[in-house]
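Hi, here's the filled form for the chain we discussed.

Project: internal
Contact: R.S.
Residues: 401
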Amino acid sequence: MPRPYPLLAVALDGLGWHPAAWRLSTAPADAPFTPGYWAGLVTEAERGTLDLVTVEDSLALQSTRPDGPDGRTDQVRGRLDAVLVAARVAPLTRHIGLVPVAGTTHSEPFHVSTAIATLDHVSQGRAGWQPRVSFRRSEARLFGRREVPELRPDQLDTPAGAALLADLFAEAADVVEVVRRLWDSWQDDAVIRDVATGRFIDRDRLHYVDFAGRWFDVKGPSIVPRPPQGQPVVAALAHDTVPYAFAAGSADLVFVTPADAGHAAAVVAAVRAAERAAGRTGPPLRILADLVVVLGDTPSAARHRRDRLDALDGAPLTSDAAVVTGTPGQLADLIAEWHRAGVDGVRLRPAVLPDDLTTITRALVPALRDRGLYHDRYPGGTLRDLLGLPRPVNRYAPVPA
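And the returned structure, exactly as it came back:
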């Protein structure tokens, strides 16, 4: 059963999700490389009582090609590190969840675990992590540690493509498992700070994780005490069977990309089937549907904005997610329809930042409240509390008698 009201998240990326966003944005073109810009976006999202924000990231420069640079100079290129951006804005906010993207294919699990655990401490329990799998040869060559075969989108359904994707997601599952073990490697009461005896920690409450797998062996323990949430929220973007299986086995939250309400119901059914196939025993995945949004005061104004953006880019906007062009009221009705279809909420990708984000917080949220579909204040607590997820028991702690 879906929640009584839909979760509302926003995905932040550069100056917006339309390639020509920088041409129309009210922010300066270099704003995404400044801390004040990100602080403004996230504090605006919190003023609108949005549940969480995600911060996009990638290893290589943005490109219109499936793999490698495209040589274009008329679109935004370059970005700041998503985890560091989230850590920068965390002290400026109190309630909103912060979920940066960080890769699995070329990252060390130990480094990811300490970074996200630190973010959870800095934000007092509002951190999450969206793992990203990299199948691009150009990204592998940035590190020079491994060779990734070239894989075009039209090769994904070939035996070689399917095998490579299966390997990459299996590796990602191992990364998440190691990260989760490292988060648990300190018991909640490991730091005792006993001045009388001179003991700062109880060494018996720190644990080796002793993970040995196909891609790496990790001894542990972490250098960061257990995060306030115990386990920060792990989110996954999933489009099809293999990513659904990864999300079912490794994540707490999944972003999906249905085309309409009917498709949303089918995707929810597919995700639940993947959970059963994985033997999932914990809480069911929270399912959020992604939508790219181009908003206006009237339907014609929204269409005019999209047409103008498309003309500036020289091509119609395309996306893996559905694109909604309309008013905040129309978007609120669509969110209600998709929520009835079974998704727990939506993650909106604003076409232009900060413009469409401001419309979301100051027009869409009131429209949802008018329909009885959104809260008017934060409930308090951690990101897990907000999502209705329990705090996990530490796997290494002794079971009480």
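Let me know if anything looks off before we file it.
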